[in-house]
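User: Could you check the structure of this?
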Amino acid sequence: MNRAAVKLACLDSLVGFASVKRYDPVKELVFWFADLCGGPGGFTEYLLWRKHSWWREKVHGWGITLKSGQDFEFNRFHHETMPTKCFKPYYGADGTGDLYKEENIKDFARVVKGGTKGDGVDLVTADGGFDVRGREQYQEILLKQLILCQVVTMFMTLRKDGDFVLKLFDIFTPFTGGIVWILYRHFEKICIIKPLSSRPANSERYIICQKLRESNPEAMISYLLKVNRKFNEIKSNESTLSPTTTSSSSLNRLLTQDRESTNSSRSTKLPKEDINEIIDISEIKKDQEFLNYIKQKNIEIAKNQIGTIKQLLKFVENPEMRLPQEEYKKLCLQEWRLPPSEEGSYKSVY
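Assistant: Sure, the predicted structure tokens are below.
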């Protein structure tokens, strides 16, 4: 089972989003989901496996991911998932799976809405990311357009009362804070969790959003698509091929600013024009409860990250130190309801 599948199993054991049960218009028990930027398919593998092997329930999913080296790898899925029967990969209008392109977002939403009789799916997962080795300090900035595109795709495909799982990293910039604030305002509940199976020394975390208040919120969708068009315009003007920098905007207008900056680790010049925020920061500051929660989670995850790095250094300095890893693994997989292999040891992940 894929490493990402184990992360989703951990999150599901805490929140229970995969246990959703609802009936379609012909009274069949069915669970619909969409998997965004999820190649090679760990989240899809887990959801299909859980529904088929645990609850024996009807399930169908749709996914969009880059078609090149990050495509879904059905040949590596657990044999009980039956992906060719219960999952439809789709790559958008141009066949690339690139969610930066508005036509691909809209085309994927059209396919999902058509497949769910116009209702939308019960769950959207978004696990997008790319290699930032050598630029880890800029990870939050580098990923912001991808996060934005996953959020707007979610709004166009998720049903009312549906759930959303989104991978984030640091939440320090006004842009990321604005994304989280938008989710906070559109769902009944949100929580930020770093699963135990996530690499403890990095800043990865997931935001779990439960019960979408309104399906297809047109004004927000229109606004987020406008921001994405501005991202693409900036990249076109700067002749860059990938999102590599900061950004700036507000809810009622897109603001841009000139800046000279250099990525010291790769000597890559950041674009002069950028989008730094998507929600007026003064609006967010009015909600002290929200600010306190974000601050608390940032401190909590940062402290754990620092503690883990210190612990790892101890093991580097003293290779003879040992932890009962097999026992820890056994306890975790029991808690996450993942089975042992036939040989008695727990299944490895790729």
